Amino acid sequence: MSYNKAPSITAKVRIFTYEPCGEIVRHARRLEKEIYDNPGSLPFQEIIYCNLGNPQALGQRPINFFREGVRSLREAVADGIAARDGFPSRPDNIFLTDGASSAINMMMQILIRSHEDGILCPLPEYPLYSASIILHGGTMVPYNLTEDSGWGLEIFEVKRCLEEARASGLTIRAMVVINPGNPTGQVLSITNQEEIVEFCRKEGLVILADEVYQENVYTENKRFNSFKKVARSLGYDHHDLSIVSFHSVSMGYYGECGRRGGYMEICGFGDDVIDEMYKLASLTICPNIAGQILISLVMDPPKLGDEAFEIFMVEKEETYSSLLKRAKALQKAFSGLEGVSCNKFEGAMYLFPRLRLPQAAIKAAQLEGVSPDVFYAHRLLGATGIAVVPGSGFHPVSGTSHIRCTILPGEETITAMVPRLQAFHEAFMDEFRG
Amino acid sequence: MSYNKAPSITAKVRIFTYEPCGEIVRHARRLEKEIYDNPGSLPFQEIIYCNLGNPQALGQRPINFFREGVRSLREAVADGIAARDGFPSRPDNIFLTDGASSAINMMMQILIRSHEDGILCPLPEYPLYSASIILHGGTMVPYNLTEDSGWGLEIFEVKRCLEEARASGLTIRAMVVINPGNPTGQVLSITNQEEIVEFCRKEGLVILADEVYQENVYTENKRFNSFKKVARSLGYDHHDLSIVSFHSVSMGYYGECGRRGGYMEICGFGDDVIDEMYKLASLTICPNIAGQILISLVMDPPKLGDEAFEIFMVEKEETYSSLLKRAKALQKAFSGLEGVSCNKFEGAMYLFPRLRLPQAAIKAAQLEGVSPDVFYAHRLLGATGIAVVPGSGFHPVSGTSHIRCTILPGEETITAMVPRLQAFHEAFMDEFRG
């Protein structure tokens, strides 16, 4: 395969070697396939793996689990993606990962070559992005989502940021899109996604598509579309555009955070880069097996006719309808508070209401040396026991104050929590109204 | 606590923020403890965590698992370390990790501030070290283990390397010691460990103690001693010396590679650095829960009187005696080959025999553009199906050739494999004897 615009990667990844999973092992795998395909063609009937210190080999062949086993999990994920999108997916393009966070870190490690490399990221952002870009020595190039249009992504704003960054000497490598949004909870329209695809194709940017909330969409007039599906529907293939999609077992109706399962699908990268990524992934040996199995099950859920289908669907629907009920209750509560506005909840698992606090509260915050949202969130916690994240941690437009609140507390907890929130807010506003 | 020589860390870690696990959450935990210690002292009876998108909260309190649960696992690990060493261990100094590899990566990320920071590493080395140092932008400062003295660690050689590196302008931050050794299989004597402790204390180096093979010691006149135990036995405490110890569920008599469990114990770092490490660890949310539980069980195995004790001891002993039998059989086989020498196997899970190949073989390798060990390993694989790792991947002294072979194939497999190895080697030597 040839890739006109296939991304180059940092030399730091290319130059180290990791032989315990290197060329000789790949050759052993080829021989093993040869034995399987043409029995008797080689002077031995099996490969004896003395290369890796994997004591699971005790009393059993180490072969099956680490090769066929893991391959079949990647196949299940690829099949699930193909079924979701209606476009093919190759198991060789799937990397199973310990949740999405480590995958995102790995892509930043691969893409960022120096401080002159920039990554476009939305603001407000999930702060893993800025942290990971800093850690790998790159430059974050933020673009603002527009709160007034329901956290819309305006392509002219992204283009403006790109051009400004290029004028300052940066090379822009990739654009991060979080869809559905975190912390903002919006779902991109397909038209908007098409604009992003056209833009990234034209500008030669990798799309880093954070799609971990793909099964957290709660609005009737929008559904989740992967960026790969949108690109393929426009007629673009892996020669035209590089896309990385991240997914995780921690979200959706499954929500198995502690299991650390996830995948990334890498499209439009050269085979040499895939090899380098394999080497990099080898450094941490493998993602945990339970998580690997779980993400394959997430992408290959019970189908009509399967024994597990009925109870699976009931549980899934119950979870969705409960999450929606909770989101609505919290959104209504926040929207009803004086000086607070809250965009319509469309997806993901968060509300990100904006606070317009009295001047006296802003001054009191200044006196304590914290930003107004931090001041508010600490007061809320101290008075009610409700822990939310101050919005400034997500870097929204300067001068605005927000809090991020999950929709996850149980329905009864929310019922009990709303009057506490209201009473606190009223007292807070009264105290600082001046 | 004050630390005279507490290590400083890279600014890249200090400057990013990650609020979803930030100050407000720590404050919420303090309030929760207050509710527990003094019921009724606060205007609410519980903390409602709306900060993190953890859907495990569905239908159940998210509190217990992520706080008391995980704390008790770290307590079990700390208790196990204290029982092993006879010196106290604090749960707050334990980080549970997805195997040792991610912990080692994290320490390199923390310690390396720029290319001028050097890390002392043994050669031959486990190549995760050079890879991780390159990835985090530092400089590897190698010291040679002495093959002729059974892969001994000579402190004057380490001192020579340190001084040479300092003279070239590097700041040496840490010394990696792998004990028992990988790929070399030696176990350090306690005298040697005392020298290392004195050296690192005097020179202000962090000891990065790779102790993942602590339960793979097979020699009767040596036993495993942690570096922390050696330092404490010499009367040094956390003010005198910084030590990080890595351990993993992937090795020992348990060998649960695919589960990705591990810990690191951090001694002699300031609380501010521990806070930064907590922030860095938060970026990948948490290690997988099954692995966390498993490492706590590894460090808190069944005791005399426990129901599980008897069968546990039988399995453990069977595993040890089988591993020892296999190591002996392979060591005897390698030592008996023409031109091959193999140091006594003391610990870990590898033999690292040295090959002295005929000149004609070395020339044939040159013609193929590979090093002699790679040439030999490929020939061995192609003729017998035995996959070993060419020694050059572990960076031994230039001009020497080795292969690394695990002792893990089953006893019957080894019995079948040895004649194949012997026949291959004989034919190889005959072909190239010239």
From TrEMBL, chains A, B:
GO molecular function: L-alanine:2-oxoglutarate aminotransferase activity; pyridoxal phosphate binding
Keyword list, A-Z: Aminotransferase, Pyridoxal phosphate, Transferase
Domain Aminotransferase class I/classII large: 68-411
Protein EC: 2.6.1.2
Pfam families hit by this protein: Aminotran_1_2
Pathway per the UniProt entry: Photosynthesis; C4 acid pathway; Amino-acid degradation; L-alanine degradation via transaminase pathway; pyruvate from L-alanine: step 1/1
Oligomer status and interactors: Homodimer.
UniProt record similarity statement: Belongs to the class-I pyridoxal-phosphate-dependent aminotransferase family. Alanine aminotransferase subfamily.
Protein name per the record: alanine transaminase
Organism: Oryza meridionalis
